[in-house]
Amino acid sequence: MLKRAAWRAAEVFTTPAPPQEFARLFNPLVSSRQLRGVVTAVRHETANSATIEFTPGGTWDAHKAGQYARIGVEIDGVRNWRSYSLVTAEGHDPAITVTAVGRVSSHLVHHTEPGDVLFLAPPQGDFLLPTGPRPLLMLTAGSGLTPVMSMLRTLLPQRRDADVVVIHSSRNSDETLFLDELTQMNDAHHSLTLVHRFTEHEGRLDLATTHDLDTLCPDWRSRKTYVCGPQEMLDDAERLWHSEDLPHELSVERFAPTLFADPDARGGVVTFEKSDKEANAEGNTTLLEVGEDAGVLLPSGCRMGICRTCLTPLVSGTVRNLSSGELCSDEGELIQTCISAAVGPVHLDA
């Protein structure tokens, strides 16, 4: 209450601008409109990845282990948003570990420095640890390890009765995130069993059958299981747990939406009216990708059909939702460009 009263008193001297705009001159975390964070450290994990630690502004909600947050960064004067898992333990300042794949992630890995300002959205997600003690199995691959690291960093120091098996796949040891820390965790905590699978020599973990799991973790059916990694791995896990009548024991975290490709889908010419640009679009390519390839600056966030940052008015034509298969041709309808594709000629107010 005292803080609100102080802001109201300050308005006498700053009107017509809000006092927060003047406060930003001294503290970049202060904003009346946008949650921000200041980068405090950048640590390279591999040749192509980095952990970025940041201190968020006062309205940040403390994250739970396994959650993610939307992170905004300005590139060439344009604010871009992506979603990243938070890798620190609960109760600690947040951090993200980013692999340089794509324009935004590559920018974060190669150009972020301490003192830089990130734009933030509150933590979210339900890929969370169980509320009570349970034996756990974590199946991860590549950057899918990031939400699980937050879980391990939270759980292992607090619960001596924890029983966790982690099976992590990566191409080789040089490309494995957190390799040294995971090894130290495995040595320090008898409650953790760590299995590294280097696919360059051992091949991918096969979840099409139970053979690999029966070999690596014989009691996997009795464990609550968390899976995060490539789309094919997640799809195989869901089918396997369903076939074993255990879907309630599986939690899946996806970094990309489940899109249904139609080999017979027809695309069309997409016209971006405000930008005065046209592009030929295939029937299974999202309008967001079409626009970006054509040099159109479209709003985007999660790129998974969740956050709705990409909503863009449809001027004319028909689009197909690649997640649901539904068609939309209502003039003025706000469509999600990250999960929508053209069905014939399409005009967008962008």
Automatic annotation (TrEMBL):
GO MF: 2 iron, 2 sulfur cluster binding; metal ion binding; oxidoreductase activity
Annotated ranges, domain 2Fe-2S ferredoxin-type: 268-350
Keyword Ribonucleoprotein (UniProt): no
Entry-linked Pfam families: Fer2, NAD_binding_1
Entry keywords, A to Z: 2Fe-2S, FAD, Flavoprotein, Iron, Iron-sulfur, Metal-binding, Oxidoreductase
InterPro entries in UniProt: 2Fe-2S_ferredoxin-like_sf, 2Fe-2S_ferredoxin-type, Beta-grasp_dom_sf, FAD-bd_FR_type, FNR_nucleotide-bd, MRET, OxRdtase_FAD/NAD-bd, Riboflavin_synthase-like_b-brl
Cofactor(s) needed for function: FAD
Domain FAD-binding FR-type: 32-130
SUPFAM superfamilies xrefs: 2Fe-2S ferredoxin-like (SSF54292), Ferredoxin reductase-like, C-terminal NADP-linked domain (SSF52343), Riboflavin synthase domain-like (SSF63380)
Protein name, as recorded: Oxidoreductase
Organism: Dermacoccus nishinomiyaensis
